[in-house]
Design goal:
4-stranded antiparallel β-sheet, 11 strands
């Protein structure tokens, strides 16, 4: 299993970013996918999760209304669109898959919100 994130970077407060995760090595369309983040000195936390067919999504309260998770089962990608970003959103964002009881993680992509 391989998960490769992209799309992180430096953006000003109020800006937007679109993160992508390219997945391989498993039957992508059979599994829910998630985005987590970990800020400096804090525990890793769930940001959003999407069901295997893309019809259901969960968002953490702190990002509801500002983030949208989506997936494309034809090309094995999951995307996180983030808007109205705040300094508190600064973190490394990780793509995650739970396959047959095993947690898989990407290496992460750094998102920095700063003026």
């Amino acid at each position: 299993v391989q998960l490769v994130e992209s799309g992180g970077g430096l953006v000003q407060p109020g800006g937007s970013l679109r993160l992508s995760c390219a997945a391989s090595g498993f039957t992508f369309s059979n599994h829910a996918m998630s985005w987590f983040r970990q800020a400096p000195g804090k525990e890793r936390e769930l940001v959003a999760r999407i069901g295997s067919a893309g019809g259901s999504a969960f968002y953490t309260d702190s990002m509801k209304g500002r983030v949208t998770i989506s997936r494309n089962n034809a090309n094995n990608t999951v995307t996180l669109q983030m808007n109205s970003l705040k300094a508190g959103d600064t973190a490394v964002y990780f793509c995650h898959a739970l396959c047959y009881g095993i947690h898989y993680w990407g290496k992460g992509t750094l998102v920095t919100i700063s003026s």
